[in-house]
From TrEMBL:
Organism: Cupriavidus basilensis
SUPFAM superfamilies: Homeodomain-like, Tetracyclin repressor-like, C-terminal domain
DNA-binding region: 32-51
Keyword Transcription regulation among UniProt keywords: yes
Organism classification: Bacteria, Pseudomonadati, Pseudomonadota, Betaproteobacteria, Burkholderiales
Pfam families from the UniProt entry: TetR_C_7, TetR_N
Limits of the HTH tetR-type domain: 9-69
Record key words, sorted: DNA-binding, Repressor, Transcription, Transcription regulation
GO molecular function terms noted in the UniProt entry: DNA-binding transcription factor activity; transcription cis-regulatory region binding
Superkingdom as given in the UniProt entry: Bacteria
Protein name: Transcriptional regulator, TetR family
Amino acid sequence: MPPAQRLTDRKREAIIQAAIAEFRDNGFEVTSMDKVAARAAVSKRTVYNHFASKDELFAEILSQLWESSQGELDMAYASDQPVDAQLRELVRLKMNMLNNASFMDLARVAIAETIHSPERAREMVARLGEREEGIHVWIRAAQADGKLKAADPAFAACQLQALIKAFAFWPQITMGQPPLDAAMQRQVVDSAVAMFLARYGV
């Protein structure tokens, strides 16, 4: 990759990070491309070279939000491994994501914008649903293997997510609570797995 390309990549990342900070601090409506350019220490023209509009820039940030949850999708169901161990690892990956400061910043920006723009919220919920599919797939595969009870995998996945997010997402997003420490993370993971398997285990 030529040096010019690396510089372009660095500028693009600086623009994205500046936009995240602006959206987080000021909200979508107040944030302008001028402010993003100033915060990123690049020209307004450079910002527009990378992103044609504020909407496009915000869409890129949302895309990064969903991509940052990709880790949970990388874990495929393994029929030769104990279900409880796999589920614990799946929940642990989710917990790691929810304790990532960058992810939480992006989530705050996205949630704040949904309050002001319901139509944008519908699009984001649809995209989030696609990303959550990884857990659905794992549950469906475990059910097909006879290791979990037959049930709607989307409903079961939603319950599992709620067990985690009640401690490691919503209190931090809505009440400014600090991230969970390691001991509390383990407690939430173990409890969520136990409760889920008490309902769906065979």
